[in-house]
Amino acid sequence: MEKTCTDTHLLAMNSSEKQETVCIFGTGDFGKSLGIKMLQCGYSVVFGSRNPQMSSLLPRGAEVLSYSEAAWKSDIIILAMHREHYDFLTEIIEIHNGKILVDVSNNLKINQYPESNAEYLAQLMPGSHVIKAFNTISAWALQSGTLDASRQVFVCGNDSKAKHRVMDIVRALGLTPLDQGSLMAAKEIENYPLQLFPMWRLPFYLSAVLCVFFFVYCAVREVIYPYVYSKTDNTFRLVISIPNRVFPITALTLLALVYLPGVIAAILQLYRGTKYRRFPDWLDHWMLCRKQLGLVALGFAFLHVIYTLVIPIRYYVRWRLRNITITQVLANKDNTFSTSSAWLSDLYVALGILGFFLFVLLGITSLPSVSNMVNWREFRFIQSKLGYLTLILCTAHTLVYGGKRFLSPSILRWYLPSAYVLALIVPCTVLVIKFILIMPCVDKTLTHIRQGWERNSKCSKSALNGKSDL
Amino acid sequence: MEKTCTDTHLLAMNSSEKQETVCIFGTGDFGKSLGIKMLQCGYSVVFGSRNPQMSSLLPRGAEVLSYSEAAWKSDIIILAMHREHYDFLTEIIEIHNGKILVDVSNNLKINQYPESNAEYLAQLMPGSHVIKAFNTISAWALQSGTLDASRQVFVCGNDSKAKHRVMDIVRALGLTPLDQGSLMAAKEIENYPLQLFPMWRLPFYLSAVLCVFFFVYCAVREVIYPYVYSKTDNTFRLVISIPNRVFPITALTLLALVYLPGVIAAILQLYRGTKYRRFPDWLDHWMLCRKQLGLVALGFAFLHVIYTLVIPIRYYVRWRLRNITITQVLANKDNTFSTSSAWLSDLYVALGILGFFLFVLLGITSLPSVSNMVNWREFRFIQSKLGYLTLILCTAHTLVYGGKRFLSPSILRWYLPSAYVLALIVPCTVLVIKFILIMPCVDKTLTHIRQGWERNSKCSKSALNGKSDL
Amino acid sequence: MEKTCTDTHLLAMNSSEKQETVCIFGTGDFGKSLGIKMLQCGYSVVFGSRNPQMSSLLPRGAEVLSYSEAAWKSDIIILAMHREHYDFLTEIIEIHNGKILVDVSNNLKINQYPESNAEYLAQLMPGSHVIKAFNTISAWALQSGTLDASRQVFVCGNDSKAKHRVMDIVRALGLTPLDQGSLMAAKEIENYPLQLFPMWRLPFYLSAVLCVFFFVYCAVREVIYPYVYSKTDNTFRLVISIPNRVFPITALTLLALVYLPGVIAAILQLYRGTKYRRFPDWLDHWMLCRKQLGLVALGFAFLHVIYTLVIPIRYYVRWRLRNITITQVLANKDNTFSTSSAWLSDLYVALGILGFFLFVLLGITSLPSVSNMVNWREFRFIQSKLGYLTLILCTAHTLVYGGKRFLSPSILRWYLPSAYVLALIVPCTVLVIKFILIMPCVDKTLTHIRQGWERNSKCSKSALNGKSDL
């Protein structure tokens, strides 16, 4: 602790400004950590406690008083206590009139109470200005000083002046305040730190299911089948060869699933003849996690690319290539060059590379800081035009890969076609429907609907009426 | 619609706060979509319409009144109508005194009117507080709820209090308000959604021209020439081999073009003897899109890397390698190892990899969120020092690639040198000029000029005068 | 200059709003550049100068007056002068009462003066509102108009209204103001532009030392040893083969060093029995630059991946593979396939790819814009869970690479083991200690301590006391 006090930088800050006093109610871990941090940043801290005598554990430099005494010392009171103990505040309610109460509490579950803790507090203490803040910062982060994670502190409250005072404190602690508006936002702010990638769940489970299915499918065709028929030990294929089939298939299917909900939504709007009716919940949720679906697909595509590029350094591949050469030399066979094979092999590779390149481009533009730089028109251009081009290139890549062997009966094993054939089902469906949707006659109606036109409108004049409006 | 109303999360929000009323003028698509969104987020919405009877199409829960009746209901009026219809507002001008008018309009063309719509509105309604907002959000995005694109809403206005009220509404709708200052910013905000990558156009067209030129050039040398002289069918080279010449050439040329304007600007400043005269427009524009030029170059370099890495898995390459081995075995030739060839081959590859690595680093630091983290000194270090190092490495990579064959007459076909020789012209020029510019005598003068010194200043004392100033 | 004045866009802005007047004290380079920029953006600029007659060099359109005359013209005065000249302001102190003084100054060294320039100014001029701003923007950037670097202008000051007026000017110049709170932040803002990657220094020097050491080590084993014993010229190995040993070793060691301080901190907390005592300075600094350590490690891993992928296109590798084939053919040896070799080779490659994939994922989530999107719980999940998984995969990759040869005496040269054996020391140590720390008995104590429990607390009730607090 003494270390901190001799920190020249902090001393310099202290000396140039008279200290502001902040009161913290509650001497738990978070209250303590916040207090230490505030002391380090030049604030004078007063703790409010039930038993002010038990002060041995509190940071040196901080005063500890009873709740009501502490409350007199400052007009900003940070409540570092659980919601269950808010009632006691009503006992000292007259002290709090006009004061700023900072609610830092979190709950154990999402939507645990009907109203947010901060709103509950505001109801209990109508005379004070309740501000929600600091709940997204952990005590551990404050304590260790290693705020590698987000430095963002969401702040909301109904009183603008009180909010700005709290935001200034947040800044003084080296954190970034983000004004989230009125206390109505408190519920969302309280739910935020409890989330664990809510939008990534569907994409994650979906890709896990796809991966497992195709892994088993390929293992049956390429490991079990040869073992049953020719007792060959192909188990080493489980490590690279089969994953390198599973990954591109999963990537292509997920990429197609990014564009499927848009196509379904268009059909639904055409069928209903209006855009002002909400989509079913599953479609809504699907549309909201399209970005995550696409990024998971990009991950699999990335793995596919590296798995493909390491092919020539694998022991098995080197052995096989050597074998081919030796066989040719010993058999004195002619090493004939087939232009069509060269074309197919190069075309398949080139389509894959270009598809991957556009895919990476889509991924980069979905980075928050990049997508904030583009306007709606540019975003649509990238995600819609370039997105479909990516899907077309990747589908073509898979089609050319199949090449002449595509669906030939010799490729069937136990009546199972090659895995890549299954991979083509969803993307081809999406592309065909999209192709129908962009045909002039269909597209015209859809555009009308999306501009607000409704097929079953009772008063035909209303369209005219709205003509002059945006 | 009923779905929305039973949304528990939203109900919870509604219940905890009494509803604020917002008035929307205009029942067009955007007005309707915004109204629905506001209803969902707990606002009470009143539409103002020319024909309030035609209300069947409006969202349930919203009231529809005549313009003047609606205006009485709220002190915030959102004008969802075209600029052409703003005049009618003057008829009910007395109602609007002191009210907040939110201009959400967009135009069809950039700089369509001499003044922005919001400024025009402010002139029409001098007694009200005009705020520009929401114009960057599309009705479709509001409606479908899938705001994958930018959630940023640019807000500007001359009255600070009015601006903050509108910003609170923006936050309540789950969007991010960005304060752009006074109404002077409205013109830029209105132009923003009409742009389609204005800074990317020059780099895009430039790279397209370079690509096409070098593609044709290489096709003539590597496909048409062998066909004419030996009837060999080399068309498969069009797919990977030739693009893998075109991409690195384009990348290197574009990278050099990133540094060329800086070099030209330095020469211009040396020639003029001052930095206080503006550069010609073309140079200004060129300098402003250097970042985009560099990123396009990085894209081509990325393609070049993958096209190179897939070389060993191409059918043609495998066939050729097999051929060499078979020929050697059959001819019983000695497979001698040349240390100098190993050196050249490894050096060329290593230079390329290091150049690409630095190039990727430059690309990452040009991401908005990363470049916001570095200060001016760090940015200059990366973009200038590391940038030139990248250019030197990539140029050296190309030079070593040429190796012994460089400009040897045997490589000429129809008097055309190899394409990579042409690729070296611009980068070598830039590097030579830069080398001259950093020589002490020249560098000293340039540094003086950039610190504000002027060669032809009339009063020699003025330099002295400014000495104490920044 | 005339060019600027005929700029239609700017004229349009000027016409729609009456011009605000800003006063700039000091006609040095920065003052001039800022003045030109403000004139271009529609402001009326008055320069204050010691010798107003020397006005020939000032931008056309700007007035030049003596300091006191100029100060009368505007209530915003930008001080573009060095701190040493602030004293003269006291002579005209009565003029400045209530005015906004904008301090744009920078120092030559970090922490050059005990208090920041802005705070010093505020002490000199108690009646005026001092705002710190613009110091992070360079004159060159303002002049050339090419603000590719950060457009962020840090603004701080004690008067909220004055701060907002300055922030509006910042926005009008096309820059992004960032409110940093009160004038206490001025010191940090003044130090900011003088920094050159302070957090990157330790990782950089560390990796440089590791690289040089392992490069020499490998050179001794693979170039000097064969030269001494068999006069083989292996110098070409210095270009790719040896770097491709040095890079992965450095990457793995650095990655382990990212997790080592966390493990040391845990041991320290267990030993001390409390989390409320500060870590030693070296540990603090180490923990603060973990992110940078990890990113440098990722850079080396990236280089390792590309160096590995180019293996098959190297001259030396092609020659060696051809040699093996020819030898086999000529010796009529059987080309036997070893399943265990295939397993080992594939496993080693697959582990490396998956490790690299997770590593890239960690790198992406450490981008500022991405890490701002995740909450503390998600960040911990990624950096801790995924981070350790990456370390485990990469360590396993190295172990399997060693395979059967691991520590076999035949691999020793001059008693030196293979370099990768040394690379395993740190990661294995970290993993073993971590494994001990997550064992239930140890983990339980540690969790208690991290929740605020203290082993040597005097009053045992205090824990009870804090139970209800956060």
TrEMBL record, chains A, B, C:
Pfam families: F420_oxidored (PF03807), Ferric_reduct (PF01794). Residues 249-394 form the Ferric oxidoreductase domain. It catalyses: 2 Cu(+) + NADP(+) + H(+) = 2 Cu(2+) + NADPH; 2 Fe(2+) + NADP(+) + H(+) = 2 Fe(3+) + NADPH. Keywords: Copper, Endosome, FAD, Flavoprotein, Heme, Ion transport, Iron, Iron transport, Membrane, Metal-binding, Oxidoreductase, Transmembrane, Transmembrane helix, Transport. It is found in: Endosome membrane. The keyword NADP does not apply. The keyword Cell division does not apply. The chain crosses the membrane at residues 204-229, 249-271, 292-313, 347-365, 386-402, 414-437. It comes from Nannospalax galili. GO terms for molecular function: cupric reductase (NADH) activity; electron transfer activity; FAD binding; ferric-chelate reductase (NADPH) activity; heme binding; metal ion binding. Residues 21-107 form the Pyrroline-5-carboxylate reductase catalytic N-terminal domain. GO terms for biological process: copper ion import; fat cell differentiation; iron import into cell; protein homotrimerization. GO terms for cellular component: endosome membrane; nucleoplasm; plasma membrane. This is STEAP family member 4. Belongs to the STEAP family. It is a multi-pass membrane protein. Its cofactor is heme b; FAD.
